[in-house]
Write a structure and sequence with these properties.
single chain, alpha+beta, Helix Hairpins, five-stranded antiparallel sheet, five-stranded mixed sheet, 13 helices, binds adenosine-5'-diphosphate, binds magnesium ion
C-alpha cells in the first residue's frame, strides 16, 4: 500500500515536471521565433547588430527563466512534503489507535490538535472509544456475573451442541466428573442417548452403579436452548440415602417401639419361667431320659426367645455408638472362631483379603462385631458344603466398603427389597431380625448397606463405613442437617 505522502507527492512532482518541460519548450520556441523575426526585419541589416549577440542574450534570458522555475519547483516540493506529512501524521495515529482498540486496549491518547475535519474525526473516534469501553465493561460485568452464577449453583450444568460437543461445563460438573468417573460415564451416555432419541425422558432421576456395586442417585433435566441443549444434573445420593433412612426410621419407630415394649414385657415373665424350671429340675433330680430331654428342650426354647428379645431390642433401640478405629483384619480374625462350628461343619473356606489401603474403619466395636456375626451367619446358612466365603475391602472416595461374598443359594430378586424388613425370613429357624439389626446399627454408625445377589450363584453383601473421624462427623452432620 502506498503511503499518503507518496500519493500527494508523486502527482504533484509529475505536474511540476510537465509544467517545467512546457515552460522550457515555450521559452525555447519563443526565443527562436523572436530571433527569426529580428533577423528578417528590414531594419536589422541597417542596425548592424550581430545575430549571435541577440541569440546569446535570449539564451541568457532562458537560463534565468529556467533557474527561477527550478527554485519555484524546489520550494513547491518542500511545501507539498510538509503539507502531505501534516495531513498524513494524524491519520496514521488514528489508524494505530484503531489497531489498539481492536486489540482491546481502550486507554488511547491522541496527541494532535486540529480544527479541521481530521480534528472532528479525532473527537468522534474518542467518543466512540469511550462508549465502546463502557459497553464492553458492562458486557464483561454481565458475563462475569453469569459465570459466577453458573459456577456457584448447587448443580452441574453442561451446554452441548447437536453434535454432542460440550460448550460449557460448570465448576460442580467438572468436580463431579473428576471425582466420580461413573457420573461422567453416565452423563456422556445420557447425552449420546438423548441426541439419538433413545432417552425415554429428558428429565428424570435414576440410580447408577459402579463396578464395586456402590450406587449413586442422579437427578437430571435437559432443555433445548436455541441451537444447543442445557443439561442440569444433581448428585442426590446423600438426599436419597437420607430419605431412605427417614423411611427406615419411621418404620423402625412404629414396629420397633411396639416390639421393644413387648420384648421388655416378655423378658421378665420369661426369667420367672426359667427360675421355676430350675426349681423343678432340682426336684426331678432322678428324672428319666424323656423328662431330661423335655427340660433341655424348654431351656433351649427359653434361650431362643431371649435371643429374639435381644435382637429386637438391638434393632429398635441400639445402644449409643462409641466409635473407634477398628483394624478390620484383626477384628474379623477374632470373630471367626465364634462361628467356626458353623462353617467347619459345612467345610466352608473363609478367606480374608483386606486391602492395606483400607484396613481401618471408624465404628463402635461391639456394633461392628454384631454386624459381622449377623452377615457371616447368613452367608454360612446360605452356602453349600465345600464352598468359599470371601471377606474383602475396597475404598470409595469417602468410605471403606467391606464386602462378604458367598457362593450360596442367592436371594431371588423379588426378595431383595424385603430382607431388611423385620421378621422377614426364609429360614426355618430364622427370626428375620439379623439384617434389620445390621441396618439399624449401620444407621447409628453412619454407614449403609446394599446387596448384590443372583439366585443359584451367590450373594455379596456390601457395607460402607467412614474410615476416619472427619468422615464420621461429616456423615453425621449430613444425616442430621
Ligand atoms: N447371604 C445370603 N444369602 C442368601 N440369602 C440371604 C443371605 N443373607 C440374607 N438372606 C436372606 O435374607 C433373609 C433375612 O435375613 P436375616 O434378617 O438375617 O434373618 P434370618 O437370618 O433370621 O432369616 C434370610 O432369611 C434369607 O432369605
Ligand atoms: Mg440372619
Amino acid at each position: 500500500m502506498k503511503s499518503i505522502e507518496l500519493k500527494i507527492l508523486v502527482p504533484f512532482l509529475a505536474i511540476i515536471i510537465v509544467s517545467l518541460s512546457v515552460v522550457g519548450s515555450v521559452s525555447y520556441y519563443g526565443s527562436y521565433k523572436i530571433l527569426e523575426s529580428l533577423i528578417n526585419h528590414p531594419l536589422y541589416a541597417a542596425s548592424g547588430i550581430n545575430a549571435d549577440y541577440i541569440s546569446n542574450q535570449l539564451l541568457e534570458l532562458q537560463k534565468y527563466t529556467i533557474l527561477v522555475a527550478i527554485i519555484a519547483i524546489i520550494a513547491a516540493a518542500q511545501l507539498t512534503i510538509f503539507f502531505s506529512y501534516s495531513l498524513a501524521k494524524p491519520i496514521k495515529k488514528l489508524a494505530a489507535a484503531c489497531d489498539e482498540v481492536s486489540k482491546g486496549n481502550f486507554d488511547i491518547t491522541l496527541d494532535y490538535k486540529r480544527k479541521d475535519e481530521i480534528g472532528t474525526l479525532k473527537e468522534a473516534f474518542i467518543r466512540m472509544t469511550e462508549r465502546l469501553k463502557e459497553y464492553i465493561a458492562k458486557v464483561l460485568e454481565v458475563t462475569s456475573l453469569n459465570n459466577k452464577i453458573v459456577d456457584g449453583v448447587n448443580y452441574g450444568i453442561l451446554v452441548f451442541t447437536r453434535s454432542g460437543k460440550k460448550l460449557l461445563v460448570n465448576r460442580l460438573a467438572s468436580y463431579e466428573f473428576n471425582n466420580f468417573p461413573i457420573i461422567r460415564e453416565f452423563i456422556d451416555n445420557l447425552i449420546r442417548d438423548f441426541l439419538s432419541g433413545n432417552t425415554p425422558s429428558s428429565s428424570s432421576s435414576t440410580m447408577i452403579n459402579d463396578k464395586n456395586g456402590s450406587s449413586k442417585f442422579i437427578e437430571y433435566d435437559i432443555q433445548p436452548s436455541e441451537d444447543n441443549y442445557i443439561l442440569c444434573f444433581s448428585d442426590i445420593t446423600e438426599k436419597e440415602r437420607f430419605k431412605q433412612k427417614m423411611e427406615y426410621i419411621n418404620r423402625l419407630t412404629s414396629i420397633g417401639e411396639m416390639s421393644a415394649a413387648l420384648a421388655h414385657e416378655i423378658r421378665n415373665p420369661l426369667q420367672g419361667i426359667k427360675s421355676c424350671l430350675q426349681v423343678l429340675e432340682n426336684k426331678f433330680i432322678n428324672a428319666d431320659d424323656t423328662s431330661t430331654t423335655l427340660l433341655n428342650l424348654i431351656y433351649g426354647e427359653i434361650e431362643r426367645i431371649n435371643n429374639i428379645i435381644s435382637d429386637l431390642l438391638n434393632y429398635a433401640r441400639p445402644s449409643e455408638p462409641k466409635p473407634e478405629y477398628i483394624d478390620i483384619r484383626r477384628e474379623i480374625e477374632d470373630i471367626l472362631p465364634l462361628l467356626a462350628h458353623l462353617y467347619n461343619k459345612k467345610h466352608i473356606t473363609m478367606k480374608i483379603d483386606i486391602n492395606p489401603d483400607c484396613n481401618y474403619i471408624f465404628i463402635d466395636k461391639s456394633h461392628f462385631k454384631q454386624i459381622i456375626i449377623n452377615l457371616l451367619s447368613n452367608s454360612i446358612n446360605a452356602s453349600d458344603e465345600n464352598t468359599e466365603i470371601l471377606i474383602y475391602t475396597t475404598k470409595n472416595n469417602d468410605e471403606i466398603i467391606l464386602s462378604i461374598k458367598d457362593q450360596g443359594k442367592g436371594i431371588p430378586e423379588e426378595d431383595l427389597e424385603k430382607v431388611f424388613i423385620p421378621f422377614f425370613t426364609t429360614e426355618e429357624k430364622g427370626t428375620g431380625l439379623g439384617l434389620s439389626v445390621v441396618q439399624s446399627l449401620l444407621v447409628k454408625n453412619h454407614g449403609h448397606i446394599w446387596i448384590k445377589s443372583k439366585s443359584g450363584i451367590g450373594t455379596t453383601i456390601n457395607i460402607a463405613l467412614p474410615f476416619d473421624f472427619a468422615h464420621y462427623v461429616r456423615f453425621r452432620n449430613n444425616n442430621f442437617a
